[in-house]
Design a protein that fits this description.
The chain is of the alpha/beta class. The chain has helices at 39-53, 70-77, 97-103, 123-133, 183-191, 202-214, 217-224, 249-260, 266-272, 284-287, 289-292, 310-322, 352-360, 372-388, and strands at 31-36, 61-65, 82-86, 108-114, 136-140, 157-161, 174-179, 195-197, 244-246, 282-283, 302-306, 361-365. The radius of gyration is 21 Å and the shape is globular. This is dTDP-4-amino-4,6-dideoxygalactose transaminase.
Length: 398
C-alpha cells in the first residue's frame, strides 16, 4: 500500500495581505466575533455567558446530546456547570425533542445544539423550546461552516473551531459569535478571560509547511504507524482554563476563502453509494437533509453512514483501511462510555439510541484530496461486504 488517504482535514491556507479596514465577516449581519484559543475555549466562554445571564439556586445545568465530542463536556464542566445528556432521534445525530423537554429543570440555563459533520441541528425547533423556558441557545458549529444561524440569528451564541480536522483549519483557534445586541452586556464576562495573540511569524509559517506536507498520502501512512501519536483517539481532556485570542483577520479570511473554494465531494458519494440504501445502510446526509436544513452546495467535514450492524461496520472499517482509505467510527462510543465522562454526569442513565448510533457509525474522508477513484473503491468494498452480510435489525428496533 503506497500511502493512505487521511480521514479528515484540509491544508492550512497561506495568510493573505493585511486588510486596510475591518473585514465584513459572513456572520456580520447578526453576530460579533470574540476570537478564542480553541473551539473548546469558545464553548466554555459561551457557557459562562449563559451562566451570567440566568441565575439559578442550585448548581446550573446545560443540555447536550448523548453522542458527541467529549470536549463539549470539558467546556461545560470547566465553568462549574453540570452536563445533562439527552438521547438522540433514531438514525440521526439530532437530540430527541421530547427528551430535551423532559431534561429541562429549574437549574437549566442553556441548550447546546451540535452540528454534526456538516449536518446542522434543527435550530428553529430548539429555539422555540428555549424561548418557552428562558434558556440560552448555543449552536456548536465546530464541525459545520458556515453556521446555520448566520442567515437568521436564531442562536444566542455560535461556536466555531479553527483546529486541525475542522472545516477551517488554521492549526488552532476558534471563535465565539454573540448576537450584536447582546455584546455589551457580555463584555464583563468576556474580559474575565485572558487575551492571547496568534503571531504569523517564521515559526508559524514553518509549522504550516510541515503540517501540509504531512497530510499527503505517504507521510500520513507513516505518521499513522507511530503509536505514541495516538491519532484519532477519543479521550476526555479537562479544560484547565479558557482564553480569548487575537487572531489576525487576514488569517481568518484566508481560511474562509479556502473553505469556499474547496471541491464538494459528497455528490460523488451520493451517486456511488446509492445501492447501499437497499442493503440496510443509512446515508446521514440524505436522510437528514430536510430535518437539518442541509445545504448541498457546501463541503462536508466527512461523509457519514450508518451500517446495518456493528459487525458490518467494524469489518468495513478494517477492509477500507487495508485498502488505504482512512474510514473510521469517529467517537466510537456515546459520551457516558468515554473514559472520564461518566463520573461528571448527574446520574447514570441509559441512552440506547445514542449507543446504537455510535456502534454503527462509519465516517469516510471528504476533503479536497479524495479522488473519484477513491470513492469508487469505497463503494466497491462496501457493496461487496454488504452482499455477503445477512440483514440485521438495528439495536434500538429490537
Amino acid at each position: 500500500m503506497w500511502g493512505k488517504v487521511r480521514p479528515v482535514g484540509s491544508r492550512v491556507p497561506k495568510p493573505g495581505h493585511k486588510p486596510q479596514v475591518e473585514p465584513p465577516y459572513i456572520w456580520g449581519s447578526f453576530y460579533q466575533a470574540e476570537f478564542t484559543s480553541s473551539g473548546t475555549d469558545a464553548l466554555a466562554i459561551a457557557v459562562a455567558v449563559a451562566l451570567n445571564r440566568k441565575k439559578v439556586q442550585s448548581r446550573p445545568e446545560v443540555i447536550l446530546p448523548a453522542y458527541g465530542c467529549p470536549d463539549i463536556v470539558s467546556a461545560v464542566v470547566s465553568q462549574g456547570v453540570k452536563p445533562v445528556l439527552v438521547d438522540l432521534m433514531p438514525d440521526t445525530p439530532f437530540m430527541d425533542l421530547e427528551k430535551v423537554r423532559e431534561a429541562i429543570g429549574p437549574s437549566t440555563i442553556a441548550i447546546i445544539a451540535v452540528g454534526f459533520l456538516g449536518i446542522p441541528e434543527r435550530l428553529e425547533l430548539l429555539a422555540s423550546v428555549c424561548r418557552e423556558h428562558d434558556l440560552f441557545l448555543i449552536e456548536d458549529s465546530a464541525q459545520c461552516f458556515p453556521p446555520a444561524s448566520v442567515n437568521s440569528g436564531v442562536a444566542d451564541a455560535v461556536i466555531l473551531s479553527f483546529g486541525r480536522g475542522k472545516p477551517i483549519n488554521l492549526m488552532g483557534g476558534g471563535a465565539l459569535l454573540i448576537r450584536s445586541e447582546a455584546i455589551a452586556t457580555c463584555s464583563a464576562v468576556l474580559d474575565h478571560f485572558p487575551l492571547l495573540r496568534t503571531e504569523i511569524g517564521l515559526k508559524w509559517r514553518l509549522k504550516r509547511l510541515i503540517f501540509n506536507a504531512l497530510m499527503r498520502r505517504i507521510p500520513y501512512l507513516l505518521l499513522e504507524r507511530l503509536p505514541f501519536l495516538r491519532l484519532g483517539e477519543t479521550r476526555y481532556r479537562p479544560l484547565d482554563g479558557a482564553s480569548r485570542n487575537d487572531i489576525p483577520a487576514r488569517l481568518v479570511l484566508s481560511g474562509i476563502r479556502s473553505f469556499e473554494n474547496r471541491p464538494v465531494q459528497h455528490p460523488i458519494y451520493d451517486s456511488c453509494l446509492d445501492t447501499l440504501d437497499t442493503k440496510g445502510w443509512i446515508r446521514l446526509g440524505l436522510t437528514n437533509k430536510k430535518l437539518g436544513g442541509l445545504d448541498e452546495r457546501l463541503p462536508r467535514l466527512r461523509y457519514a453512514i450508518l451500517a446495518p450492524s456493528t459487525e458490518l461496520r467494524d469489518r468495513a472499517e478494517l477492509e477500507l483501511n487495508a485498502h488505504g482509505i482512512s474510514a473510521n467510527s469517529f467517537y466510537r462510543n456515546s459520551l457516558p462510555d468515554v473514559p472520564g465522562v461518566e463520573a461528571l454526569l448527574i446520574q447514570k442513565k441509559e441512552y440506547p439510541v445514542a449507543d446504537s448510533f455510535a456502534s454503527r457509525l462509519l465516517t469516510l474522508p471528504c476533503h479536497e484530496d479524495v479522488r473519484e477513484a477513491d470513492i469508487k473503491l469505497i463503494a466497491a468494498v462496501l457493496d461487496g461486504l454488504s452482499t455477503r452480510e445477512p440483514p440485521q435489525a438495528c439495536a434500538h428496533h429490537r
